[in-house]
Design brief:
0% of the residues lie in helices and 48% in strands. The chain is mainly beta. A four-stranded antiparallel beta sheet has the order 1-28-27-26, with no helix packed on it. A four-stranded antiparallel beta sheet has the order 2-3-4-5, with no helix packed on it. Strands 6-7-8-9 form a four-stranded antiparallel beta sheet, with no helix packed on it.
Length: 357
């Protein structure tokens, strides 16, 4: 898609859900798409044939998130459960989907609809961050495979009481920034008062502290995402502001703030593409807006859906450092470049697929 194309149109529409789409994610090297809806169902789609490989009811209430890990799937529902499943994408049109049972479950607090965030620790363990079991303004960290709660009550000190419920969060490993302890993690969290906090947590000792906080939104912050190169984050909210946090050389230090506003308030979700070059927002006005991550310049407005957008996801795109040099033995001029996709879902129960930049 180029800037001169007007208006852009979706390449394909996935139809299979009958309820609001709450979560979307590419996995298996972009060959599969996961989608979850308000009715508790999730679907695994084949991106080549664009057919559903498996459809089944995973939760008794709406699904907040579904994601892949190794050869497993992990789902998070409004029924206060996080479940782990075997990958069932080989069950095309197989009635046994009705008897699929989770291989692991933990009880969590889903009162404020905050999606869990995960950080794999090797191939055997996976750390997840979720709102605290009894107080939705706090955050807990669990090791999912052993069902152990490692740290609880992050942000529950009285001095932070003004921030309200945790609405969105991202957990990441400090070693990704070349820093010390392999038990030290960061959580970037967005809150009901419009604030965004960076927490530092040591999972071996339980120690936690606030590194910095910024309150740029006038309404509840609804979504936050962090670039995979750990250079910046973006937050969106019930207001019309899109805020960028450019991290200092030491991520513990307060970030440089820049922002852009749109005409219509109400942005439910933000997603940064894996190459950190662009990001997209999901609007209550049924519009998807695509921006340059570097300049915050608007690049495109995608219009197809008839009701508010709840979620979106980019296919994985290699960053410049991941790409092979042109003279590499493995590179070939005859190799077809993979398409860069964006998928969008909302209240109209449809999933639109867009080829983008």
């Amino acid at each position: 898609m180029s800037l001169t194309e007007s208006p852009p149109t979706p390449e394909y529409i996935f139809r299979g859900h009958t309820d609001q789409i709450n979560t979307l994610e590419f996995y298996h090297n972009n060959s599969r798409l996961l989608s979850g809806d308000e009715g508790g169902n999730f679907i695994i789609w084949d991106m080549k044939t664009r057919r559903s490989l498996a459809i089944f009811k995973a939760h008794s209430e709406g699904i907040l998130k579904v994601t892949g890990w190794m050869d497993k799937l992990i789902s998070h529902g409004r029924d206060n459960l996080i479940l782990m499943w075997k990958d069932v994408s080989n069950l095309l049109n197989d009635s046994t989907t009705e008897s699929i049972k989770p291989i692991l479950r933990i009880s969590v607090n889903s009162l404020n609809f905050c999606q869990f965030s995960m950080c794999p620790k090797g191939s055997e363990e996976i750390y997840i961050a979720v709102p605290n079991l009894t107080d939705s303004s706090g955050i807990d960290i669990w090791e999912l495979t052993s069902q152990r709660r490692l740290v609880d009550g992050i942000g529950l000190d009285k001095i932070y009481s003004q921030k309200g419920y945790c609405m969105a969060l991202k957990l990441f490993d400090k070693s990704s920034k070349g820093l010390a302890s392999n038990q030290a993690y960061y959580i970037l969290a967005a809150y009901e008062n419009g604030g965004v906090y960076l927490w530092e947590v040591d999972c071996s000792t339980g120690l936690k502290k606030a590194c910095w906080n910024q309150t740029e939104h006038s309404e509840s912050a609804l979504s936050v995402d962090i670039s995979q190169n750990w250079a910046f984050a973006i937050s969106v909210a019930g207001d019309n502001k899109i805020v960028k946090y450019k991290f200092a050389e030491s991520i513990d230090q307060p970030p440089k703030i820049s922002q852009v506003t749109i005409k219509t308030p109400g942005i439910s979700y933000v997603c940064i593409r894996s190459d950190a070059k662009i990001f997209a927002t999901a609007g209550w006005d049924s519009k998807v807006r695509v921006f340059s991550a570097k300049t915050l310049k608007p690049l495109a407005i995608l219009s197809y859906h008839t009701q508010s957008i709840q979620t979106l996801a980019f296919s994985h795109v290699k960053s410049d450092v991941e790409k092979e040099p042109e003279n590499s033995e493995n590179s070939s001029n005859e190799t077809e470049e993979p398409k860069n996709y964006l998928v969008v879902g909302g209240k109209d129960a449809r999933i639109s697929l867009w080829e983008i930049y």
